[in-house]
User: Fold these one by one.
Assistant:
Number 1:
Amino acid sequence: MTWKSRGGLDSNVKSFVSRKWTLLFCIGCFCAGMLFSDRMWVVPEVQDIPRGTGVEDGKLKLVSEGCDSVSKDMKREPEEILGEVSKTHHAIQTLDKTISNLEMELAAARAAQESIINGSPLSDNLKINESSGKRKYLMVVGINSAFSSRKRRDSVRATWMPQGEKRKKLEEEKGIVMRFVIGHSATSGGILDRAIEAEDKRHGDFLRLEHIEGYLELSAKTKIFFATAVALWNADFYVKVDDDVHVNIATLGATLARHRSKPRVYIGCMKSGPVLAQKGVRYHEPEYWKFGEEGNKYFRHATGQLYAISKDLASYISINQHMLHKYANEDVSLGSWFIGLDVEHIDDRRLCCGTPPDCEWKAQAGNICVASFDWSCSGICKSAERMKEVHRRCGEGENALWSAAF
């Protein structure tokens, strides 16, 4: 055998051996792979006892506890349920008062800001109120007056509005603030303004408004009064009174105190008179068409001689005074501002002021608004001396003012 033939044989043997081992190696790898796959991907058998997740267990527990609580609530006594309802109602009232206080502070801040922007200094009353802290009052009584009503103011001072130290004592002990409300004349610093300044210097019982006086401007004056009063004094109620009526202030305070827990009340002698479309007549309403067909009546509102509103409503007027529409009649305007609000209208017939000749019997009946008088009328309503007698008959005077009725 030659070397070449021997080399060719060895090459064939190596080739055969290589192919054989390659085939065996591939078969072994395949078997090993099958064995490995079976061990790694074996699906565990489902056990008979189900396993719930922690979240599902928590949900089931909450549902179970909820059912238990419902069943327990159903078994609770009615007194306990009423007690919880009462607590909830009290919490709501507390929240309402907090909101009202914030609104009042906002109104005061806006009033101060407007005074600064307009370049007019803050009034002395506002400075006194800020320095003395947030004293809480029962009511602020604004007696609407005019430049020509000096005799009426003197009659009020001589009867139901205490003077000097007595008025201060009434404010400190009973929380009742009383002021004559008046604006300025069209001629700034004129004789009319100087006369009021001299009268105020003597008595100190005026609240001067940034307002030009005029009969057709009573609605605007009412808005400015409430906005100013709520900025100066933190009170439960704000009362507007005409200077031609005499008020039993002790009875008025006792009446308002009964409604202290109500957040939004509008108290007065409620009426709903006809809308007068005819020109030239008294109380003509130029915007009569807004109330529907001719002959329709106004919505419910209090007569303008005497009414009271709660602090929330006064704050509402102060905040929105630039958007509130003014009708010809001041009392109608006030009633319109509360349309659409959650306001309780309280019709108290004792706040219906008497007019000649029925003022005497209403005074004897003990009305809060004792009598309305006119200097041109006759009888009991004619003079201040006769009005003093009316108050003595009604039990008004110093003893009634300091009574503990409220």
Number 2:
Amino acid sequence: MDDTESTTTSADENTGNLLDNPTRDTLAEGLLGFLKPTVDQLDDRVRATRISQLELKQQIESLNEELQNVRSALNDHPDLDPYVKKLISCKHKVTVVLNVLQASQDRLNEIRRVVNKEKRVRTAVLPEAAPQEPEQGTSAEDSFLLIDALEKDLEYLKAKNPVFCLEVGSGSGIVITALGMVLPQCFCISTDINRNACVMSKDTASYNKVVLDACNMDLACFFVDKMFDVVIFNPPYVVTESEECRRTDITASWAGGVKGREITDRLLDIIPKKLADDGVFYLLLVQENIPDEVVKIMSGYGYKCDIVIKRKVRNEQQLVLKFYN
């Protein structure tokens, strides 16, 4: 009994020693103190991770809602093709209108330029001291008709860039002066069988600052061949007796002889010799001169013909013909 009691007492005592062992408690507390910061940090990180996961979940859900909205918007977008086509059509219409307006503006500018030139030419006056001998031709209207024809054909003349220009039977010199004013680069020459008309032509050109050499001669007989790029003729075209065509006074300004064309036909024979190969010849006629015959004569020389202008003046049907190769 003593041994049993002694053994039992010893076991109880050891158990009590384990529970109340100060060394063990100190060691446990030390281990807990050493591990607690790490455990706390681990807890904080786990907590932060859970919070981040929650926020990420919320953002994913929000993004999913936005994607659903985008998908819905893409499926329900309006058809813009009709509006694009309307815009393109409007652009084309605006472009057409702008082109029309620009063309109209250019045309107005051209008309203004032509009017200013016409005004300048028609208001060209002769010096008071000039001899008052009528020009070789029937009236000033003839000269203005030729001026209108040259004005209408101005772009064609500029493109040819003529060097020598001749007016046969210049009279007062209004026509050759007008041509010299719009083609300042060319050298202008005029002829007239009436000496006073030559003086008047020279004065008219000088008054308007145009370089002109006026020659007192019959038609263009004494010039070298193939000299002139442009030849202009306002002939005496009134039907008269042939004898009247041989005079050199004022009668020469209107007497045309048979068919009013005797003087004209003489010049037609000269033109192929005096006109440059690429030259142009302007001729004023009336219906009584039978223009078709003139065209046929010049066609025989190899010239083509265009009617530049046609007008009724004082009950006369006048026209300006252009002959060229």
